[in-house]
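Example record

One chain of 215 residues, shown exactly as stored in the release files.
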Amino acid sequence: MWLEYLSVIFILTNFILLASSRLGFCIKAVTIQGVVLAIIPLVHEGDHLNVASLVLCGVTLAVKGYAFPKLLNGAISRARIRREVEPLVGYSTSILLGLLMLVFGFWLQSRLPLGGNDGLLLPGAFFAILSGFFVTIGRRKALTQILGYLALENGIFAFGAAALPEHPWMLELGVLLDVFVAVLVMGVAVFRISEEFEHIDVDRLRSLRDPVGEG
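Predicted structure tokens for this chain:
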């Protein structure tokens, strides 16, 4: 039962990421995802908790629930931005596409011999992967794209928890390390871009040209 509740929260946070223009609110949604993912292994193990599961939960909570939000909120403060404006794909269309992604996740679950006892977790994982990829390519602000990248990684984490509940921790710790480095680098890049160009709209950055090359 608790796994179903956590899965519903996980799915709703992806809809928030698709529907909200406020970056702070989107960061909170991704933070809630991290907390949910830290709890899921504890629910899976129940009375059979081991050291590996506790380590995975602790690292997940520290990185996804604290480190990532702190880095991203700091980047928002330095870049002096609060919301995503004029996304490449509108929010109403994004929600509609999100519903289709969720339906596709349920269909994909029915086609795979995995996660039969995990209810909503596996389709939620597919939904997070698809919605994270969509946000990464469908939004203009670099920070929003970072959030999409994190949601995609959260989907991979959830898939590992649903499909391989016995041995997900080595894979997930490796993914966490890669994502931590990526977010750190991207956060620094966003800050530098904001300092140089006074905006972090990647669509506007595409219009930059090298005057030497043009001559």
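Notes: Residues 14 and 128 are 6 Å apart (CA to CA).
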